[in-house]
Amino acid sequence: MSRLLSPIHRIATRSTTSGGIRWSSYVGDVRCWDNLSKSYSRRGFASFSANLSTNTNPVTNHNRRSFRSNNNNIRSHERLLVLGSGVAGCATALTAARHGIPVTVLHAGSLKEDCNSYWAQGGIIYKNYRLWEGANGGMMSDRGGNGETKRLVDTTLSLVEDIRVASGYLGKLQRGEELEEGRYGDGLVLNNKNSGSNSNGSRNVLGKKCSTTGIHWNEDAAWKLACEGPSRVRELLLGKRDGGMNHDGDLSEGVTSTGCVVPFDRVKDGNLDVDVLSLCLEASHAAPRIIHHADCTGKVITTHITKAAANHPLIEFVGDSLATDLLFDSGNSSTSSNDGLVIGARVLDKRSKQLTNYYATHGVVLASGGLAGIYQHSTNPVGFNALGSSVGLALRLENDMLGRNKGGIVSDLEYIQFHPTSLYVPNEARFLLTEALRGEGAILRDADGRAFARDYHPNGELAPRDIVARAVFSETQKTSGEEHNAFLDITHRDSDWLKGRFPSIHAHLTSRDKPMDFTKECIPVIPAAHYTCGGVTTDLDGRVVGSKEGRWYRNLFAAGEAARTGLHGGNRLASTSLLEGLVFGSSVGEMVAGAGMSNYVGEEVNGAVHEARSAIEQRLARERSPTSKSASGVSNDTTASREANAFLTQLKALMWDNVGVVRDPAKLSMAVSELTAIRDQADLLWEENSECNKAGEEIVALRDAAYAGLALAKSALANRVSGGAHYVAPQEDANESLSDGESSSDEEEEEVMVAVARG
């Protein structure tokens, strides 16, 4: 008898063409894993469970031991170093550790939960297995029993299409047929035909370029998210009753459980008389497919996944740790090839101000989030997070190895997503008002109470974020002085229901000195910098790519908001960020372990580990003394810290005024000049203070923000074509065509007119 992954078994299922069974209409109801594994095997997919429970890889077998109890100096470096404790970092750590790789996770705050993932409000994309479309086009919440042909509304194809539309890429999909859930392997890849063939093989990581908007979008990244996403959610976040692999608090020896079971909201299913995962609709989604926990989904996911990672015997967390530079083996790099070997990171302890080299034979993962925090008005929390740490580290590595202005290691930085609805109160920090509010029916109104969203897009409040953000921004520009002209209105919904669905927002609004009640009054809103669609350039496996030819930096990976996979193109679809962290973080963990990879890639990973081990041993032999003085000799230079803070304040204002929602080439040019000067000052402050134990987190933060901000402004200045979140104010040469783009089609032209109308 086939094994079932849920106690609920009286559910109708449907055979697939490959002999397995597909999920039925109930979310998380039942999966026949034996048949599913056979189905994946026949189709070229690798089973997630097989990869987790079976490991004969020489890369990882020698690591099956207690990591924390080993104090040997060399062996302590037999690890993977993950920079960032958010969803992407923890997914990477858990996956690598389940394959026997020891992991050290460094995080900037004193608490491992102090990360940007914690503040995500809306939810995470899963899949709606309950919503069916009949032959007559009608929708129903069950499959019915009258023999009528029906199909799921929420498919991998529909999610890929939603991501494409939101991205600003206007061309057609390369693949128009549905794919089953499972591993998105080399045999399915559209634009990366040489993947895994050799370490220096040319690969197309940027994806296709839209001739109208200039946006590069990687359709393969979207297919990977859609095909692997549901399984990763079940693997890392769900319990047995929802078809997941986890028992709450139980770390199975068989590595089938992480001990992470997230308590997502549930509703009663009238057809089955059971409670099921609650699925909500958000902007630009074709179906309700978002699972959530009230309006604090990021908080509850982060709390549970960091706890699960901390409980794993091969994972350790080190807090108050700021990576300042990446370490690489200069013997493996050259100006003619950027496939150098990364062997660790230079790390500042915030408390002692000591600098320490953290070596890692299995490489370094950049997972410290994006750079939207470098703007004066941002939805990101105040602090070190979202100041461009991963981008800054990557750029400095590229500079050290290849020299400045070589380009390639970061891409698409101009596409900064501005969230349309942050709370607007003068002289107060912006507070995010989740997309889910508009998904639940909130209306955007001007000061006269007129709904204005449909003036800008037929989908109104549910249009892509970049369009809604520019709509709100445009309305705020119509008034002057103290009068505000953009408000969010959800007063037509039941008051008690709203307080239960959005408790964090209710608590924040009512706790102010001048309380607000969003159940009874319209709330003033304004766009704020929210998310980085670009980042450190990677391939589908998370390997950092350092040139247009597709060569990569060995032993360097990136995942989550820090990475640019091409998934988002020019604009991110709502609630993709947490799922992106799970899917691509897990892929990095498997890549590091050589799990499910071709023999060639496995040998390549193993070779990099051996080279890194040799390079680290040579480094340690040369290091006759600690890299910094003892903590007792620390003397923080408060003057330098104050100067760094002043420069950072100046930088944030500069970014908001000149590289904001609507951009102008003249202002961008001025920003590049001023940011270059700030970057040079940041480097000088670092050089003067780092080696004498005077460099605090303020200087580290400024340095990262300066590198990231300058790269962003340069990228925006170089791109004169409006697309997605990058909107350039109309110029006389706005009609000039792209010199290297594809020929534009009538269909693209018609779609872009809707997308930018009155934007």
TrEMBL record:
Q: Which domain of life is it from?
A: Eukaryota
Q: What is this protein called?
A: L-aspartate oxidase
Name the coenzymes or cofactors required.
FAD
- Which keywords has UniProt assigned to this entry? FAD, Flavoprotein, Oxidoreductase, Pyridine nucleotide biosynthesis
Pathway note: Cofactor biosynthesis; NAD(+) biosynthesis; iminoaspartate from L-aspartate (oxidase route): step 1/1
Species assigned in the record: Cyclotella cryptica
The annotated region (Disordered) lies at 619-639, 728-759
EC class of the enzyme, as a word: oxidoreductase
Q: Which residues form the Fumarate reductase/succinate dehydrogenase flavoprotein-like C-terminal domain?
A: 650-727
Q: Name one GO molecular function term.
A: L-aspartate oxidase activity
Where is this chain compositionally biased, Acidic residues type?
743-752
Asked if Flavoprotein is a keyword of the record, the answer is yes
Q: Please give the family membership noted in the entry.
A: Belongs to the FAD-dependent oxidoreductase 2 family. NadB subfamily.
